[in-house]
Request: fold
Amino acid sequence: MSSTKNHSPEDLEALRQAYIKIRQGKDSRRFGARTMAALEQMLNEPHETAIKSISEIAQEHGISTSSLTRMAQRMGFNGFPGLRALFEQNLRQRKGFYSKQVENFLQRKHVYDNTESDLLGQIIQDEWSNVMFMFENFEDERFAATIDLIVKAKRVTIIGLRSSYLLAYYLGFYLRLIRDAVSTAGQAGHTLAEDLSLLHRGDLLIAISLKPYTKNTVDACRIARKQKVDIVAITDSVSSPLASETNNFLITPVEKEYFFTPIAAAIIGIETILSAVVKRLGEQASRKLKHTEYILEKMEIET
Reply:
């Protein structure tokens, strides 16, 4: 009887995608709960995995080294060293991420010959391709479920750190205008631990992180999931570590090489969320807005 050998994932994103399919039952491979937990932590902590031994990882999860070896082999590797090499490769690639993006950009054909208007046109074209990819892969049912969670949650906490903070602030600012109990985690004077400790079953965490992903945001999702808190992720790929923590996500691509993260698709995605929430809340959103406008007028905030 012949058998088909699984091809090993080429990079960490492909491995994460394989893990998601296995967890969702969309892959014929099956692993025990502890082995799956070990693989999940390896993916959540790729830098630590790159330097840990097989014995250390096995001991942390109460499994044998042979279990990890078999898991690696069933994932298509010759053994555990082949699997760990993927994490070592990722660690090397992540060093100097932004400077490498600049180098790749400067190596583009004709980049020095382009005028400023040519550069503007190129960035618009690149951003537009991300927006169209989001539109072409938009999932109506998944998006409707996401809006349902935002509308029905007792409390909504939004987390987005580093370059994603502006997206979290933008979403939080306008969401607070149309519904109560909305906060943004990680603001000055707060620790993430204090913000996350306020979340309970029935609450919602909206997590935003785009490549390169921020570990604290991934950790926040993992903690929220263990606390039975609903999670909505806004991220750039189904293989993102945020997408592996929830079935409720909006994919906003960030392809093309710049030292900054292209966010046009993410902004449009967030604006679509806000519009859909207003539509769902209806008169309730209108009353909340009118109350806010009354306070703004009394304090003469806007000119």
